[in-house]
């Protein structure tokens, strides 16, 4: 059922409201029979999209309210979250950053509501990956991530004025050293192996300057 404007050829064109057979409702702009322009689409399951359309697909800026209470506000391309946007999850976490083909992809900031921790850095196909900083209440970790876990060399920076350098290694690498009576670590969870503690690294236009061994020994 459709109630709205049509062009001379009888196509839906202009402003209109459509009641779809599956129970969904669209109220917005049409162009030559297609949802195109600004509109509101209410899904039977309780979801709702308010934003731009092009040829029946979400395209441009828009807000999508999901049935579980989560929400995405940002760019859409060809029915996919694509570009820049903010996703507020049902548990209160938020992601602000780049999207590619419906996934978090590029640079973004993820805030964990329960702990207040903040991840700032790279994402690949929805997973934390690349150079990043994980910020906690009184310290932060700076290094690389892969599939949501820290990997390789990095450092913890403490607000009291020192850094702990080290690296994350695959827990399977040193499982031979673990005694049988010890509880096994989570499968695949990387373990932090500290190497040294230094003063805060000085930043220069040429990058980071690591303190000399003498300076480090004074910490």
From TrEMBL:
It comes from Smutsornis africanus (Double-banded courser). Its main location: cytoplasm. Residues 1-13 have a biased composition (Basic and acidic residues). PANTHER family: RADIAL SPOKE HEAD 1 HOMOLOG. Gene3D superfamilies: Histone H3 K4-specific methyltransferase SET7/9 N-terminal domain. One of its GO terms (cellular component) is motile cilium. The keyword Cytoplasm applies. Residues 1-20 are annotated as: Disordered. GO terms for biological process: axoneme assembly; meiotic cell cycle; spermatid development. SUPFAM superfamilies: Histone H3 K4-specific methyltransferase SET7/9 N-terminal domain (SSF82185). InterPro entries: MORN. The keyword DNA-binding does not apply. Keywords: Cell projection, Cilium, Cytoplasm, Cytoskeleton, Flagellum, Meiosis, Repeat. The gene is Rsph1. Functions as part of axonemal radial spoke complexes that play an important part in the motility of sperm and cilia. This is Radial spoke head 1 homolog.
């Amino acid at each position: 059922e459709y109630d709205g404007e049509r062009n001379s050829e009888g196509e839906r064109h202009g402003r209109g409201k459509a009641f779809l057979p599956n129970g969904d409702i669209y109220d917005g702009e049409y162009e030559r029979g297609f949802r195109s322009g600004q509109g509101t689409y209410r899904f039977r399951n309780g979801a709702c999209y308010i934003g731009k359309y092009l040829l029946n697909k979400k395209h441009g800026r828009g807000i999508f309210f999901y049935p579980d209470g989560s929400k995405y506000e940002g760019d859409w391309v060809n029915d996919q979250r694509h570009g820049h946007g903010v996703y507020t999850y049902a548990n209160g976490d938020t992601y602000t950053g780049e999207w590619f083909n419906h996934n978090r992809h590029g640079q973004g900031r993820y805030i964990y509501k329960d702990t207040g921790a903040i991840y700032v850095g790279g994402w690949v196909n929805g997973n934390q990956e690349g150079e990043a900083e994980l910020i906690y209440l009184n310290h932060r970790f700076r290094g690389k991530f892969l599939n949501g876990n820290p990997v390789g060399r990095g450092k913890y920076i403490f607000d009291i004025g020192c850094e702990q350098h080290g690296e994350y290694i695959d827990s399977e690498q040193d499982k031979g050293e673990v005694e049988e009576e010890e509880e096994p670590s989570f499968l695949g969870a990387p373990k932090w192996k500290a190497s040294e503690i230094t003063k805060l690294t000085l930043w220069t236009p040429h990058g980071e300057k690591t303190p000399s061994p003498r300076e480090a020994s004074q910490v």
